[in-house]
Every structure is written in C-alpha cells, then in structure tokens.
Amino acid sequence: MIKTTFKIKIYRVICGLLVAVMLLIYYPGLAFADQISSRSVVMGSSVASVNTTYNFTFTVAQTTTVKSVKFQACDDASGLCTQSGVASGFSSSTPGASLSGQPTNLGSGGTWTIDNTDTTALRIKNSSNTGSPSSAITVNFSNVHNPSATNSTFFIRITTYSDDAWTTEIDSGTVATSTAGQVTVTASVNETLTFTLSSSTVALGTLSTSTTGAGTSLMTVATNAISGYSLSYSGDTLKSGSNTISAMSAMTTSSMNSKQFGINLMSNATPSIGSDVSGTGNGTPTAGYDTANNFKFNTSGDTIASASTPTNSNTFTTSYIANIDGSTAPGNYSTTITYVATVNF
Amino acid sequence: MSSIKYFIVVILVIIFPIIIISPAGAEQISGRSITLSSSESNASDITYTLLTDALPTSTTPVKSMEIKFCTSISESCTTPSGFSSSLSTLASQPSGLGATSGWTVNTSTTGSLRIVNVSNSTNPSGPVSVIWSGVHNPQIANQTFYGIVSTYSDSAWTTAIDTGSVALSTSSQIQVALSVKETLTFCTGTSITNQNCGTISGDQVNLGTGSTTATATGTSVFAVGTNGVTGYSVMVTGNTLRSGGNSITAMSSGGASTVNSSQFGINLADNNTTPAVGATKTGSGTGTATLNYGTDDNFRFVSGDTVASASGSTSSNTFTVSYIANIDASTPPGAYNTSLKYTATANF
After folding, report:
1. Regarding beta strands B112-116 and A229-235, do their DSSP bridges make them parallel or antiparallel, or are they unpaired?
2. Does any CB of chain A come closer than 8 Å to the CB of residue B177?
3. pLDDT tens for residues B241-264?
4. What is the mean pLDDT of residues A107-130?
5. Which of the following CATH numbers is that of domain A193-343: 1.10.10, 3.10.50, 2.60.40, 3.40.50?
6. Domain spanning B23-169 has what CATH number?
7. Cβ contacts of residue B347 below 8 Å, gap of 6+?
8. Interface residue B338 vs chain A (CB under 8 A)
C-alpha cells in the first residue's frame, strides 16, 4: 500500500514537471518576463517581399541592464514561433539587415551590433552595455526583407535579455503589423494643341494720309508638345485690284503719309492699338513682332510667335496698321492672312 | 422487546445533538438566513447579514445576541479554521431587537459575531436584521459551516431566549482566463466587402485620360483595425503621377480640384462633389481620416503623410481613397503612373 502511494506521488511529480516544461516551450515569455509597453513598429514599406526599414519604439518594464534584444517575426502572437504562414519570407539575413543607427535609451556604453545568424529575427547585442534602460527606446533597422504574403498580419515579438546571447529574458512584448498591397495609379495624357482665332475680319477703316488705319484680332494657343509650338502667318499685303499698300518687310515704326502695312503682337502707343501677350503660358512673340510701335509684314510668311516647351494658353493680340500716301489709289483694299500653329511632339 | 429498546436507543442517538444544541427553554427562530457578501474562502472584510422573522419570544428584552460559527452542529463547537470576527463592526444599528440604538459589537470571541446592548429594555418586535462588516471568512474553500444564532436576556451571552442555526458555505472562486493577442487588421486593394480583408482584391486604379476640361478620378480602399492601446496610423508613401521625366504636380498644400491645372491629390472624405468621387467610411470602428485628408472636395498628396488614424483600440473601418488628377494644356502627353504604398502602424 505504501509502495503504491509512493508510485502515485512520483507519477504526479513527473506530470507536473512535464506540464511546466511544455509551458516553457510553448509560452517562452511566460517565465518571469514583464510586459514591454508602448511598443510599435513603423515599417518603411508594407509591400510584401520588399526590403525596407523597421523602426521600433518601446518601453521596458524592468531596469535590469539590457545586453541583447531580439525582434522575432512570427506567424502568431504567442505560442511556438513559426514562419510557415503569414511571416513566411521575412528575413534579416537576405539581403542583410543592418542597424540604421545606435539604439537610444537602451543604456550606455559599448556599441550595439546586429547579428543576423537567426534569419527569423532581428537581433542586436552589446556586451559592454551598462546602466538601466529608460522609456521610449528606439531601435531602427534597414534592409529588412518583408514577408511574402500581401495584406497579411504578422507579429514581431520583442524580447530583452540580460546577457548578450539572447538567453536570459528580462521583458517581452508583441506588436502586430501587416503587409499590404500596393496601389498603382495610372492616367494617360494625350497630345494636345489648342489654337483659336477670335474673329475672321478686321476692318482698318478709311485711310487718310494723316491717320493710321488700325485693327486687331486675337489668337489663343497652347500645347503639351514637348518642343512647344511655332505660330506663323502667310498672306499678301493689302491690295485693291492691282494696287497695293507696301508691306513693311523690315520692322519699322508706323509713319503716316507713306504706304505701310504691318503687324505686331504688342501693346502700342503709335498708333494706340493692341495688347501684350496674356495668359499663363510661356509663348512669346518672335523677333520683328515683339517691339512696341514697330511693325512688320513679310509676304513670304513668317513666324510670329513661339514656345519652346509645353505651354499653357497664351492670348496674342495681333495689331494691324496701314498708312497711305497721297498717291495711293482709291479703292477697297483687303487681304486674307492665314495663321498656322505647328507643334513638335 | 429488545428490538423496541434498540429502536429507542437509535432514536435517542439521532435526536441527541438537537437536544443538546437547543438551550433549555429556547424557542426556535424562524425565517433565518445569513447572507455573505462573498463566499470566497479566506477573504477579508466580508459583510454578514442576518435576517430572521420576528423573534418568537416577544416578551423578553434582548440584551445580547450572537452568531456562533462552528464546523458542525454538535455540542462541541469548532470554529472553522480562519474564520475571525476580530475586526468586525456593525454596519448599522440592528432592527427587530427592541432598542434601535445602543448596540455595539463585542469581538472578544473571534469565533462568534456578537452584539450587546445592556440598556435595552424594549421587547423585540418585527423582523430582525443585523449586519456585520469586516468579517474574515473561513480559509477552506467549498466548506460548509454553521452559524448558531442566539438571543440572550442578559448582556453576557449567557441566558438564552431564542435560537436557530443556519448552514453556510465558502466556495472556490472560478478564475475565467482569456488570452487576447495583439492584432492589426490591414489590407489594401480596390474592392472589398465590408471590412473583410479576406475579400479584398485589385491593385490598379486607372484614372483614365486626362483633360483640361474634366477631372480624372478613381478610388481604392483599405481596411484597418487594431486592439493596440493607442490605436493606429496609416501612412501613404510614393510619388506623384509621372511619365518619364514629366510629372503632374502633387497637391502638396491641399486644395480644391481645379480643371486646367496640373494636380494630383487624394482624400478619404465621405462626400466629395467636385468631382463626385469616393465613398463614406464603413464599419463600426473609431478610425477617422486625418484633417488634411478628411475634408470633402479638398485633396492633397504628400508622401509620408498620415491619412487615417485611431487614438485607441478600434474595430475595423474601411476607407475609400479618392484620387483626382487634373492637367493643364502644357502637361506633356504620356502614360502617367505611380505606385502608392499604405503602411499601418499600431501602437501597443
């Protein structure tokens, strides 16, 4: 009877030991470790399978000097740590994680170094560390390889140790983090050219030797062409049958009592006609048509304005002037001028 | 005959304890109960409430009263181990015992709850209520013990008037344990059912063809929730829309969508009307879009900005991200794109 009782006691002791051992295996943080608080990890990128930064912030519970710290990526928050599920693909060794700088508030003395022997964990140690850790410890890593599953929560268990071999636990805590998909945003922009003329007729009135006939038309032009645009005109000078008013082949000022027909794109005082270019674009009048009170008209055609890059809209005011001298034959003078905008994509 | 003698002996043995615990001449108190504020074993500062019907002897003033606690109802009372009245007090003056004041606790006998009022000359009437506080429960869990209630005509708990016993018991406390792990639910895509990350799909947002007269729009979604004690933040990183060396200007200062200007921006607002894009946040969580990204018709894009957050643990919310792009006439043609990354950080 005594022998049987003794056997039962031995059996109970063995069972108790087995339970304790299993608890230590499955709940490694159960034994003696206090909870790490205010813990978080900021991932530089949550995209699966990329190399990125992991920046940890946490506060330990105990003041024991820390000589090593482990950040282990696991499929689950507790129990035996595995990397066969959501944490699969995490790696500290490929391509090779490194400390972005020395940790802060982990103590003083010595230098913290990383040890990537255990690819499932980011591990640092400092055998010369002294002093107590303070709050808001930061440990920043770069080149950490994210798990391969997208949109998956995985867990990083943070554990501090009093030795430099990640053996004797002090405190521990778990953070949940997640990979995520990457959203690609696309848009297409087609080639564009905006070109409008405001009117189809310009009346210069009845000319005399003592007044200058004047009138305006408006053009708006814009393009997203890489080399911008050039705006040219073509046409004849003012004619009435075989009679003509001389085109101002070279840029010059308006002079009454002389035969002149010319244009420019400026705000003029003599005569008072026209406006400078307006709008947010970067188009400009070209030489010959860019000087106030100076006019020109090339019957062979000419470039009157241009932009060398993509440009928003500009509105150009074309000023037309005509002068006659005493010999100018009477008649109805007219001409048709064609404007062409050419873009270079 | 011997059988009859044997029967009589057996009967006497059975009723003997009852005979000896009922003091001579004492009447039985009826309707009696003792209620413990907690039956937890070995617990301190427990309240014991005695309630009875009106005492059967209503013509004799009660000057003292006690509840003696015993492990069994027998002649020799053994106090349950750990029980103590040494710190007991009267929570209030008793009722039904005659005088309505002048009752005090006597703790000289730690195995009994006692009160005394030497001046009481009023006959008892009505239901009795006596409440003691500061009692220490027996230390053994799930143990039945007994309280023997007695009233006395003297102030020394000697001359019993009425009596009655009550059975009580300590009990084990049931420890209910639940382990809650740290959680962070987070997923991104272009389509999701409610807040179920298992249903999320898509990763392309096509804004179409840009125009100087209309705003190009599109949406994506993300779901997020955590039990982190200080909640979460969701950050967006990436470039503005680019096509080779050309780009559409990011709305770094935020603002309204304006056609015929170069703009790329996002928001998480519920009711954009200019342009009409986006959707109301769903889910019972407490997450919200941040100020710069939560205003209707106001768009912004700065890489590294926090676009949504929660300040405490929260159920999941699904946010709809609205993207807008405008171009001006000078925006070079091309296929523009960018890859935006959303990162959730939980704080435990």
Report:
1. unpaired
2. no
3. 999 999 999 999 999 999 999 999
4. 96
5. 2.60.40
6. 2.60.40
7. A38, A39, A40, B228, B229, B230, B231, B232
8. yes
